[in-house]
Amino acid sequence: MTRKDDAYKYIRNKIIRGEYLPEQILSENTLTQEIGVSRTPVREALHQLSSESLVTFVGRTTMVSPLTKEDVAETYELRTLLEIYALEKTIDKIPDRLLDEVEEEFKSSAAEHDWEKYLAVDIKFHNLITNIHQKQFDQLLNIIRSQTDRTRYINAHSKRSMDRSLEEHLQIISKIKQRDFGEAKKALEYHLQQVYEAVLEYVNYR
C-alpha cells in the first residue's frame, strides 16, 4: 500500500464514520501531521476523494462535501434500482450456506449490539446480492459506493433501532432462500426505503 493509499484510507474512513463532519474544513498541514506523510500523498488522496464526491474544493479550501436531501434521494434511488436489478440475477445463485452464515452473523452482532460488526455484515450481505460480475454494473455501483457507505454510518446512529434493521434483513434472507423474487424484491425495497427515511431525517435535522 502506497502513502497515497494510506492517506486516502485514513481520510475516507474519517468522513464515512462522521468523524469529519459535512462542510468541515480539511487542512493539508493538519492531515500530514495526523497521518504521518508528506503533502503530496495527502493532496493526491483528496483529489481521489473529490472524484467520489466526499470532499469539495472551494478555491484553495478543501472541505468535506455537504450531504443534501438531493444527494440522499439520488443515492437511494440509484441504489434501489441497482440492487433490485442484481437481485433478479443472483436470487437463484446465492448458496444457502452463505445465506445461513450472514443470517447468524446478523443475529450475533445484533445480540452484542455491536454496530461495527453489524455494519460489516450488512456490507457483506448486500455484496452477495450485487455480485453479478458485469463491468458496467460494477462501474455504476462504484459511483455511489462512498455515499452508500457514508449513509450506512448515519443510519447506524439514527433513532432507527438495530432490532428493526435485523428484522428487515432476516425477512430479505428468508425470501431469497425461498427463491421468491417478487417477495424478496418487496422486502429489499422496504428495507432500503426505511434506511433512506432515517438518513433523510438526519439530514433534515442538521
Automatic annotation (TrEMBL):
GO molecular function: DNA binding; DNA-binding transcription factor activity
Keyword annotations from UniProtKB, A to Z: DNA-binding, Transcription, Transcription regulation
Superkingdom of this protein's organism: Bacteria
Domain HTH gntR-type, chain residue ranges per copy: 1-67
PANTHER family named in the record: GLUCONATE OPERON TRANSCRIPTIONAL REPRESSOR, TRANSCRIPTIONAL REGULATOR, GNTR FAMILY
Protein name: GntR family transcriptional regulator
Species of the source: Lactobacillus pasteurii DSM 23907 = CRBIP 24.76
